[in-house]
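Notebook entry, structure prediction.
Reason for the run: the old model in the group folder had no record of what sequence produced it. Starting over properly, with the input documented here first.
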Amino acid sequence: MRNRWLAAGITAGFSMALFVAPHFSVSADEKKETPKKIEPWKPEDFIYTEFAGAVRISPYAKWAVWVKSTVDKEKDGRVSNLMLSSLTDSAEIELTHGSDHFNSPVWSPNSERIAFLSDRKRPNSKGDPAGTQIWLINPHGGEPWSITEFARAPRRIDWLDNDTLIFSAQEDASLFEQEAKKKKDDSEVVDDEAHEPPVRLYKLNIKDKKVTRLTTNTDWIQGWAVSHDGKYAAASHSKSLRYAFDQKFPPLAVLHNLTDGTEKIIFTEGRVRPRGFEWAKDNSGFYAAAPFSTDRRFLTASIELLYFYDVNAGKSVQVALDWENGIGSDLAATPDGFIVGLAGGARFQMARYTREKSGDSWTWKRHNVEGDHARNLEGFEVSEDGKTIVYSHSTASKLSQLFRAQMDSDKIASPFQLTKLNQNLVNGRAYAKSEVIHWTGSNNEEVEGILYYPQNYEAGKKYPVIAAIHGGPMGADKDLWGESWAYPIQLFTQRGAFVLRPNYHGSNDYGLKWAESICCGKYYDLETPDINAGVDYLISKGMGDPDRVGTMGWSNGSILSTSLLITYPDRYKTASVGAGDVEWFSDWANVDFGESFDAYYFGKSPWQDPDLYIKKSPVFKMDHIKAPVLIFHGNADRNVPFAQSWTYFRTLQWHGKVPVKFVVFPGEPHGPRKLTHQLRKVSEEIAWFDKYFFKTEKPFNEALKEGSPLETAFRLKNVSRSGSRYGTEFSAKPKSLLIPEVVKHGELEVGRFEVTRAQFAEFDKNCKFDAGTENYPANGITLEQAKAYAAWLSKTTSQTWRIANKSEATSWYEKKDGENTLDYWAGYALNPEDAASLAKKAVELPGNAALLKAVGSFAGQGKEDEELIFDLGGNVAEWVLLPEGKGEPIGGSADQPADQRSTHAPNAAYIGFRVVRGATKEPAKQ
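New structure, fully documented this time:
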């Protein structure tokens, strides 16, 4: 029962690479925290977090090995590394690094090796081994090495002695399976017990790599634990592949004698179905945690009781915990008994039990454990001598870290922080105040929950309230850090809202009566009023604003959020729901636990009372909903049918009363595992609430690329005024008159640049422009103004200047890339829809045609035997003359995309001109 790890996201996998051993200690200077700027919470903060868990203390309590989980953006998932932390000083060793996966580290009895499971690619591997194999590493230095190449991946490992490992795995493939593989037949037969390979126990000699089968069972071993002397293994055997669905054929507990190969079915009296085992330090027996319920068919809602099996006596006894709610957290054996986290609602009650033998029976005495961290810890491990404990400590307002401490009788003493996880968040974010609160709910009973305060909360003011509802229903929100992609609480408190996480009727860790209170047809009936009563409580205290209430939740939290929307349609203004049911009839057969969940909570199967299932299904009442609803679901979900969210979405669409949006995560199970999907969930959710709940939605343009010149212009509120080649290397002009520079282009002398604002201002004294934009092209020019400028220039210089004819100029403007067009500002090649969106957005920029740049800012156009001409494909579109004397602006412009497949008309502000020197040979009118 060790380390029933609660840290979110760690199940995604583990990683390891070549051993590296940078041994370091934290110096006094390093201990001084450098003050960091407090930044707003971002969606990434809840996705890219680090976790620590799977702690194992070395036999002599000198070191603790643990697994550090981080993200790998390239793999779009989580990876992990083995870490060593000293239990005597502040030293830490990074055992592994990289992006492979490993898990389940276990110390050898002499502390000389650590065994673990890894899917790291093995050098010189032969055949077609499974991805996950057994590896070893010397904690004192060196590289890890693989000692197996199994066709079936080991599922769990432990040590029998210093040279022998025990592991569980599926049996080798049968001929039937081999033939199907040859045929590339990946068809699946549901509940095919005849061909499902049994899971057995094996031992492995690490010296000669010889594998010996320890059991010959024909069923499937699940959890197991080996005695410290290696003589016995207690195991839970699954007897049916459909047990999760209907709980008809329960698992059996078996004691395997590893010395002579015999086995004995144990816990035969009553209904004891162990979920975990922990051997006593003296090998006299083991502790087994098992669910208990008063329901005769199902263990769906239960509390966890504890039993002790005495090997010599061959019988078991229930341990009198003297605690009504049962076990709530981990259990670790000590030389004189065990330490356990008891179920205590929002906070665990740590307790130490001492064992004494009275005649032929054992008795246990409870001692409550005290200490600063005693009510807010999880994932703990206790040393062999019972004197050292390593655990994860956090609160609802404080990120989790690993600590070591001394077990001083009944007190956790001298806690010392081992890890510095998520330092960018620890020192760089503001955390909402949180507290455990109580209110009166259904049946006039007290309901408990966690309340998070708005940032910058001021007493006497009313704030929005959001109910963040946990799943389960046999889940519970704790006074522990529990924020993730599913519940990014700080994003909502940062926006000025209370967030209430209610532990409604049916939640875990509040005793059997509470857990079973919503069974047998009462599902929805108590939980929904419980949650709404919590909102009422905040309103009655003058804290919550009754006109600004929202709800969110995943799985059962989604189910209850929908119930709130239907039951109290005028109260709940916005909702975000993920992977929740709305129609129960089809749920029953399409999830892995349909009968054991639905028939328990509704009291009957759909075939026994179809009207009940229709009555309980929210889909038939969705015309009541008045709030905008955002829906999420993975299409590989086996806990809640993916079709449920389609039904939800289409039904709200059909009624047409509220905005609804449905986001699908391809290939994802009940919760998204890919980082990109998790980030999308949080980003969509907070944007939904910004728009419909907080009413603070910021204008967002999907075509505006982050980091592009246009996006930068909006951030700086000022378009770059970069210098121009004009006036530098092409600057030989009389000071008395800014005469356009020309270059030979075929038989013509063409203006090297578009006519600038400074040049045009010499002609038109009313032309005004901002300082620093003298070399920007003259813009907003009509054809008549362009022709008048050419006539004035001709008269002033006694040379012939004119506007080019289209027939002689068209080829100049064809296929000119890399110019100042809207594509440049966007940072990518625009399609018509994005171009229209950005063109509309660009007009919001301040200034006169803010997308223009100084002439010559981009690479010039021209062949090797011709001099360069600039801005033919961008900046301003340029007037040319048609035969009948009319004009047409051609060429690219900064406000239009460089799309050769479409014709774009520039806005008037982005039309200018360039001039040609010399008489025309065309009959067009000037």
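Summary: The longest helix spans residues 675-692.
The old model has been moved to the deprecated folder.
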